C-alpha cells in the first residue's frame, strides 16, 4: 500500500474524523501554540481544556499568517498561496479573513491593496468535503483540490506555499521538495510546521511512533535543510515549539473518553507524549526562500 492510500485510509476513519472535529478545535488538524506563560493542569476542567486547545490552534494560525504578511509587505502585485495538506481548511480561512482585513486597512490609508488567491490541497476526501462545505456555508472563495500535493496536475505556480504537520505523512520528502520547487515562483516562500527528530534520537528509539503513523522516518532540522538546499531553497529561519506540542497532546489525552473506540487514538497520544518527554522528538516551524 502506498503512502497516499495509507493517509487516505487514516483520515477516512469515521472515529478519527470525529475525534479531530470534537477535540482538535473544530476546523483544524494541527498542533497549537500555547502562550509562554501557559500552565498545564492535569486535573483541569475538560471544557476549559477544550478552549485552551482551540486558543492554541488559533494562535498557530495567526503565527503562520504573520509570516505571510511580512513577506507580502516586501513584495508587489497579486499573491498566489497554496495550503499543502489543508485538512479542514481552518488556517486558510483565517489567512483569507486576515488578508481581507489587511486590504481594508490599506484602502482606508489610501495604500495599494495586496490581491491574493488561496488554493487548498488534501489527499483525504473526507477532509476536502468538510473543508468545501465550510467554505460554501461561510462564503469563502477558496478552491479545494482532493489530490496529492506531490502530483498537482496543472501548471499554476505560487508565491507562498505553507503546510502544517502534513509532511510527516510523506516518506519521499526529496520528491516533495522537488515538487515545491517546481510549483513555487522565483523568490517565493515556503512556510511549514512538522514533527522532527531531535539530534540524539535514532530509529530504534522512535520505531513505535513510526509504526503508529505508517511512516519510515522523521526528518531532523539538518536533514530538512539539506533536502531543501538540494531543491533550490535557502534556509531562512525556524521556530521550535516542543513545549506546546507536549501541552497539546497532554490536553487532548486528558479530555478524550476512555472507550474501546478511542483505544488506538489513546495509545498513539501516549506514544507521542512519551517520546516528547524522552527528548526524542520536537516540533518546528521552518521558513525557506526559493533562490532567485
Describe this structure in words.
By secondary structure, the chain is α/β, with parallel strands linked by helices. The chain has a single domain (3-290), classed as 3-Layer(aba) Sandwich (Rossmann fold). 48% of the residues lie in helices and 18% in strands. The protein is built from ten helices and seven strands. The chain has helices at residues 3-12, 14-23, 46-73, 90-108, 125-137, 173-183, 203-213, 221-230, 242-255, 263-277; strands at 79-84, 116-121, 144-145, 158-164, 184-197, 233-240, 281-290. It has a seven-stranded mixed beta sheet with strand order 3-2-1-4-5-7-6, sandwiched between helices. α3 runs antiparallel to α9 and α9 runs antiparallel to α10. The longest helix has 28 residues, at 46-73. It is globular and about 50 Å long. The relative contact order is 0.15. The mean pLDDT is 88.
User: What are the secondary-structure elements, in order, as H or E?
Assistant: HHHEHEHEEHEHHEHHE
Total domains, how many? 1
* Oligomer designation: single chain
State the strand order across the main sheet.
Answer: 3-2-1-4-5-7-6
The number of helical elements comes to 10
Q: Write down the overall mean pLDDT.
A: 88
Structural class: alpha/beta
| Overall CATH class | Alpha Beta
CATH superfamily: Vaccinia Virus protein VP39
CATH architecture: 3-Layer(aba) Sandwich
| Spatial shape | globular
Amount of beta strand? 15-25%
The CATH topology turns out to be: Rossmann fold
Q: End-to-end span in angstroms? A: 38 Å
What kind of sheet is the major sheet? 7 strands, mixed
Low-confidence stretches: none
Helix share, percent = 40-55%
How many strand segments? 7
Task: Round the Cα radius of gyration to an integer and report it.
Answer: 19 Å
Amino acid at each position: 500500500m502506498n503512502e497516499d492510500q495509507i493517509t487516505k485510509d487514516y483520515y477516512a476513519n469515521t472515529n478519527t474524523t470525529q475525534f479531530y472535529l470534537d477535540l482538535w478545535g473544530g476546523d483544524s488538524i494541527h498542533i497549537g501554540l500555547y502562550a509562554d506563560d501557559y500552565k498545564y493542569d492535569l486535573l483541569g476542567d475538560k471544557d476549559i481544556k477544550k478552549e485552551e486547545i482551540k486558543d492554541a490552534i488559533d494562535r498557530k494560525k495567526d503565527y503562520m499568517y504573520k509570516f505571510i504578511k511580512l513577506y507580502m509587505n516586501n513584495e508587489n502585485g497579486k499573491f498566489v498561496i497554496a495550503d499543502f495538506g489543508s485538512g479542514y481548511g481552518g488556517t486558510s480561512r483565517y489567512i483569507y479573513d486576515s488578508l481581507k482585513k489587511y486590504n481594508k486597512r490599506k484602502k482606508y490609508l489610501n495604500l495599494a491593496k495586496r490581491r491574493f488567491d488561496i488554493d487548498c490541497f488534501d489527499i483525504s476526501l473526507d477532509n476536502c468535503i468538510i473543508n468545501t462545505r465550510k467554505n460554501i456555508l461561510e462564503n469563502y472563495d477558496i478552491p479545494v483540490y482532493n489530490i496529492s500535493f506531490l502530483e498537482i496536475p496543472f501548471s499554476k505556480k505560487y508565491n507562498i506555499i505553507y503546510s502544517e504537520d502534513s509532511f510527516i505523512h510523506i516518506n519521499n520528502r526529496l520528491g516533495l521538495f522537488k515538487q515545491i520547487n517546481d510549483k513555487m515562483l522565483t523568490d517565493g516562500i515556503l512556510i511549514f510546521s512538522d514533527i522532527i527528530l531531535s539530534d540524539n534520537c535514532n530509529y530504534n528509539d522512535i520505531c513505535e511512533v513510526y509504526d503508529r503513523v505508517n511512516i519510515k522516518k522523521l526528518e531532523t532540522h539538518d536533514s530538512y535543510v539539506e533536502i531543501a538546499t538540494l531543491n533550490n531553497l535557502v534556509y531562512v529561519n525556524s521556530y521550535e515549539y516542543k513545549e506546546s506540542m507536549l501541552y497539546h497532546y497532554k490536553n487532548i489525552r486528558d479530555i478524550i473518553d476512555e472507550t474501546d473506540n478511542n483505544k488506538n487514538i489513546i495509545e498513539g497520544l501516549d506514544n507521542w507524549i512519551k517520546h516528547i518527554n524522552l527528548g526524542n522528538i520536537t516540533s518546528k516551524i521552518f521558513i525557506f526562500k526559493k533562490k532567485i
